[in-house]
Design brief:
Blueprint (H helix, E strand, L loop, with lengths): L4 H4 L4 E7 L8 E6 L2 E7 L13 E4 L2 H5 L4 E5 L5 H4 L2 H4 L7 E5 H14 L6 E5 L4 E4 L3 E7 L8 E7 L2 E5 L17 H10 L1 E7 L16 H10 L4 E4 L5 H13 L3 E5 L1 H13 L23 E5 L9 H6 L13 E4 L8 H13 L3 E3 L14 H11 L1 E7 L3 H13 L15 E4 L4 E4 L6 E4 L6 E2 L1 H13 L1 E9 L9 E5 L7 H18 L1 H4 E2 L7 E2 L1 H20 L4 E9 L21 E2 L2 E2 L20 H5 L5 E2 L17 H6 L11 H4 L21
Parallel strand pairs: 3-5, 5-6, 6-7, 11-12, 12-18, 13-15, 13-16, 14-15, 16-17, 23-27, 27-30
Antiparallel strand pairs: 1-2, 1-19, 2-3, 4-21, 8-9, 9-10, 10-11, 19-20, 21-22, 23-24, 25-26, 28-29
Helix pairs in contact: 5-9, 6-12, 7-8, 15-17
């Protein structure tokens, strides 16, 4: 008897990471069973060098927006930005009924939500160690205390209809925690004894052998550098590293130094941590930054943001001499108590170089023993596997090589290779009591926010910014009458474009593109409405000119600048500017049509790239334009154009040589490297 698929189908748990895989940051994961969706964390990431003007990178949440009526709530593991930094933005687009998390993380999240104006879009519920919360009909979550570089951090034991899932969050095994809150190994072992279906474990340091050193191990080295400094001590670290900040404040008090705080996040985090009791320091230890210069250098310690070389962070501004209160002195000792996040190394190194050039002593690097990671090394990861003994294993939170190395560690600990998955953002992990598979992915990607954290920078805008940065911009000002004729020589302006073409050649190329469009595309771009003048698709005219010049520059000069054409519509009957394009040979190859080589009349078909005698440009239609368009709606008065002979007379008489043309505008080069884009000089005509 054949058993159908429907008869054997088992209930399936779907786990869908939207961020945090093959990257560092924007950790966001979705658990789905039946009609219930549960989110675990929603973080952000830093932009890469090519993301011009981008301040924050978030995961694409299209899947959540489409299924927002199924969201039962969110679980927060701890308060680092790469785990909670995106929540306030997401709440602008979909509601989350309730968010459960540690007290410190939710306290920090409250400020972000108030600032974004979304405090009424959800309910925050604080939890403690071993608390259990229920979300929807199918999810029950236990919070297991772990140790990390951030205080009040948890791993999760998620009970589902198919089995128990251990989701580690960020962790390391620190047996001497600064705050005395130890990793709850007993609960991990308890779930391991009962049976763990699948382990989703942090992979950040999977390539590093041994155990991660405890946080307290940096105390003596920081103490030595602070005690030996004869001048000011400037320390930069992650503001959210509560344990590290607590030790620095303790050392400042021990060495008789007053503390000045710089950086908005540093001020906010310390205020929240002191308010909740995670950090203890007397009020008299702190001095307002505006009064810090009244304290002697030997008694000053400045604690600030900027350990990742962020352009707007306090230390970066100080290194550039742009901070209003603090200037670097040669007697300063500057301590980087942090390591660069992948992607930030160049920014950090440049900041260190600038500080050294100003004469300061800079202490940085692994050899100084002033920083330890908050993520477990290989032996920490082995201990997690040994305690939980999972049936299936999925490495998460890391770049691809880290995931692969962590998977090998899992194999060495007895997890079969067939029971291990390497996944990417958007992949769907389907779990039953007896199987793990990867099914069709959901939409995943990134959303880019500008510095306001409100405006989304889409792919088109980012591509245009990259074009500007790499090849510059070309602006064209073209005066065209409503009867389809050039009314003045085009003005071409180059900014940031490196080219061997001289001003005259660029001007001739532009004239030819405009002339070709007017002769071959004008009928398609105009519509006779019965009025005195036809209705013109000026945006279409601009796009045609831009595409043609873009193709020409890509072919002739191997550059792809952003091209911006502005058209000044002129009234019908405006004196015609004949141009110089016909008086000089056109070196463009003749196009090939379907019947062989074709040359259209009146200049048609002379442009390379597939224009045929009918005025159609097949290559243009096949290649999308990488341009933006803007219309200038003000009409050009007849007196603003150079004085020319009437059109009828011009058609009878031969074209004069360029040197003899009476209008000085026609004889002068039309490329302006210095004038602002879109600005034209007023030319006095011969008649005036």
């Amino acid at each position: 008897m054949t058993v159908t698929t429907a008869q054997t189908k088992q209930p399936t748990l779907r786990v869908i990471p939207l961020g945090g895989l093959h990257e560092i940051g924007k950790n966001t994961c979705v658990f789905e069973y039946g009609d219930d969706l549960m989110l675990v964390d929603a973080g952000l990431a830093f932009p890469s060098d090519g993301m011009h003007g981008v301040n924050v990178v978030l995961p694409d949440t299209s899947f959540l927006r489409e299924n927002q009526n199924r969201i039962r709530g969110m679980i927060v593991t701890h308060g680092h930005e790469d785990h909670i930094g995106g929540i306030a933005h997401h709440l602008k687009h979909f509601n989350i009924p309730v968010i459960y998390g540690p007290r410190l993380a939710l306290s920090m999240l409250t400020g972000k939500m108030d600032e974004a104006g979304v405090a009424d879009r959800t309910t925050l519920q604080t939890v403690g160690p071993r608390d259990v919360v229920k979300l929807g009909q199918h999810f029950s979550v236990e919070f297991i205390r772990n140790t990390h570089s951030m205080a009040d951090s948890f791993s999760l034991a998620i009970s589902t209809p198919v089995g128990t899932i251990i989701f580690t969050g960020d962790f390391k095994f620190d047996h001497t925690p600064v705050d005395g809150e130890h990793f709850d190994l007993a609960r991990l072992a308890h779930h391991g004894d009962k049976g763990v279906l699948c382990l989703f474990s942090d992979s950040t340091n999977a390539e590093v052998p041994g155990f991660c050193p405890p946080e307290r191990s940096v105390f003596s080295n920081l103490d030595r550098h602070i005690a030996e400094s004869e001048g000011r001590v400037i320390v930069t670290t992650f503001a959210s590293s509560i344990h590290r900040v607590s030790m620095i404040l303790e050392l400042a008090l021990k060495n008789g130094r007053k503390v000045g705080l710089l950086g908005r996040s540093m001020l906010n985090v310390i205020a929240k941590a002191r308010e909740l009791g995670y950090m203890r320091a007397p009020d008299e230890l702190f001095v307002p930054i505006k009064q810090i210069n009244n304290v002697s250098d030997r008694e000053t310690l400045l604690l600030m943001t900027g350990s990742q070389g962020e352009p707007l962070a306090a230390l970066s501004r100080i290194s550039r001499g742009e901070h209003p209160q603090v200037r670097v002195k040669s007697s300063d000792t500057i301590i980087f108590s942090a390591s660069p996040i992948p992607g930030n190394t160049i920014s950090v190194v440049n900041t260190i170089d600038r500080l050294m050039m100003l004469g300061a002593k800079v202490v940085y690097g692994k050899g100084e023993g002033i920083h330890v990671s908050g993520h477990g090394f290989q032996e920490d990861q082995k201990l997690m596997l040994a305690l939980t003994r999972p049936k299936f294993f999925v490495p998460v939170h890391g770049e691809h090589r880290m995931l692969v190395r962590h998977a090998r560690t899992g194999h060495s600990m007895g997890v079969p290779e067939d029971n291990t998955l390497i996944i990417d953002n958007g992949d769907v992990v389907e779990l039953t009591a007896d199987s793990i598979t990867k099914s069709d992915p959901v939409k995943a990607g990134i959303e880019l926010l500008d510095q306001s954290r409100n405006g989304i920078v889409d792919a088109r805008v980012l591509k245009e910014r990259q074009q500007l940065a790499v090849d510059g911009i070309v602006t064209i000002l073209a005066a065209i009458s409503t009867d389809g004729a050039m009314a003045a020589p085009p003005r071409v302006n180059l900014r940031g474009v490196v080219t061997t073409a001289d001003a005259r050649k660029m001007s001739l190329w532009t004239e030819r593109e405009i002339k070709w469009v007017l002769e071959n595309r004008w009928k398609q771009l105009t519509r006779n409405t019965g009025g005195a003048a036809p209705e013109v698709d000026w945006m279409g005219v601009q796009r045609e000119v831009e595409v043609g010049l873009s193709r020409r520059m890509r072919r002739e000069l191997q550059v792809e600048p952003l091209i911006l054409c502005l058209v000044q519509p002129a009234p019908a009957g405006t004196p015609v500017y004949k141009g110089r394009a016909d008086s000089e040979p056109d070196d463009r190859p003749a196009p090939r049509g379907r019947g062989g080589r074709q040359v259209g009349g009146n200049g048609a078909g002379r442009h390379g790239g597939g224009r045929d005698g009918g005025g159609r440009d097949r290559s243009r239609e096949a290649t999308p334009a990488r341009v933006i368009t803007t219309t200038r709606s003000a009409a050009v008065e007849a007196k603003s154009a150079p004085v020319k002979e009437p059109v009828a007379a011009a058609s009878k008489a031969p074209a004069p040589a360029p040197a003899k043309e009476p209008a000085p505008a026609a004889a002068a080069p039309s490329v302006d490297q210095d004038m602002p884009a879109g600005r034209t000089r007023r030319r006095r005509s011969a008649a005036a």
